[in-house]
């Protein structure tokens, strides 16, 4: 249960990081367009360049965080799957072989088996 909650939290963080990365990428594209249209003598060009550099750095950081969160989420998924397999293996190992081989008899089948046994004994 705790692993599933952690997995959900990591998935939420991954999605949030991906949204942030997409938003930063969009802002970078808009600023690059503005920069392309601005004249080279404009005093704001340097501001645009600095802002683009900041956003590109934020984008890179956010992408790395998203990648780390996805790796952690995937590792937790594998851990949960391994725990599930172990639980199934333990359950299977603790079940007596006679029960694993054949399903339980229905009441009518059980009665038929008893009557056949009685035929042999009498």
Automatic annotation (TrEMBL):
Q: Where is this region: Disordered?
A: 1-25, 85-122
> Which segments show compositional bias classed as Basic and acidic residues?
8-23
Report the superkingdom from the record.
Eukaryota
Name of the protein described by the UniProt record: Uncharacterized protein
Record organism: Ostreococcus mediterraneus
